[in-house]
Amino acid sequence: MPIKKIKYHRVYEDVIEQIENLILSGNLAPGDVLPTERELAQAFGISRGRFARPSAFWSAKG
After folding, report:
1. In terms of Cα–Cα distance, which of 43, 47, 46 is closest to 22?
2. How far apart are CA 41 and CA 15, in angstroms?
3. Taking 70 as the threshold, does the pLDDT of residue 44 lie above it?
4. Is the pLDDT of residue 25 over 90?
5. Which residues contact 44 (CB under 8 A, 6 or more apart)?
6. DSSP states of 17-51 as a string?
């Protein structure tokens, strides 16, 4: 019986992917102001602590 390994899932990767998709689709443009971390965490349905890593990623990426 073939069994596939379960892919380890990280919430912050989903957040980063969704924000990247918003940028690529044109829903977020350069210069657009994002909601606060608290508002984004609430919109994604995650705790603000889980949002810290994606936030640091985007800050470093510019």
Report:
1. 43
2. 9
3. yes
4. yes
5. 14, 15, 18, 51
6. HHHHHHHHTTSS-TTPPPPPHHHHHHHHTS-HHHH
Count the Cβ atoms, other than its own, within 10 Å of residue 8. 6
- Rounded to whole angstroms, how far apart are CA atoms 11 and 13? 5
Give, rounded to a whole angstrom, the gap between the first and last alpha carbons of the chain: 47
DSSP state of 3: -
The type of residue at 44 is: F
Apex 35 CA angle, 13 and 17, nearest 5: 20
